[in-house]
Amino acid sequence: MTPRTEDRPQMSVEEFEELERHAPETVRLEFINGRVQVKPVTDGNHDHIIAWLQRLCMQHRPELWLYGDRGVKVERHRKGRARPDGILAPFGFPAGHGDWSDTGGVLMAVEVTSHDSDTHQRDRVEKPDGYAGAGIPVYLLIDRDDGSVVVYNQPENGRYLHAEKLPFGASVKLPDPVDIVLDTAPLKEFAD
């Protein structure tokens, strides 16, 4: 007989952080909704999209930096840990933070969908709630599966009040405090 989820012992954030410290470099772990999740290693197209976004952010907001794969503390009540594909924050943001940064000062979290069975639940359901709950003003989801960009903003009570989905090729306004307009035409070559 398998124990019900609520009967299983819960891993503490301290136990997760210890596990994550000892994981091989080829494995990226996150702690979302009280569960350990393995985040897929990125492919070349994924990395190219992040580099494209980094370049645009630098051109429009040179005082900011798009930090890739930076660990952040999410889910205030459950003490979650996430590794967004990118976080936009003032240059120098993570200095002195250790492995996991508080989200104060983070303007935007970015995820690019991966081609795995968990991407829907992770990137489209759990991450928006985690980032909103952590008070990150903007969440940008670059969804390669359906060739779209989704901009979430206005976090309140653990949810984003507004989300706008646009196809690759559209002009996408990243709202305040990011205040950048993206020409997403270059993303069309990455739509699956």
TrEMBL record:
The cross-references to CDD domains, in alphabetical order and at most eight, read: DUF820-like
Instruction: List residues of the Putative restriction endonuclease domain.
Output: 13-179
Print the keywords alphabetically. Endonuclease, Hydrolase, Nuclease
Single GO MF descriptor = endonuclease activity
Listed Pfam families: Uma2
Q: Which InterPro entries does UniProt cross-reference here?
A: Nuclease_put_TT1808, Restrct_endonuc-II-like, Uma2
Coiled-coil region(s) at which residues? Answer: none
* Name the record gives this protein: Uma2 family endonuclease
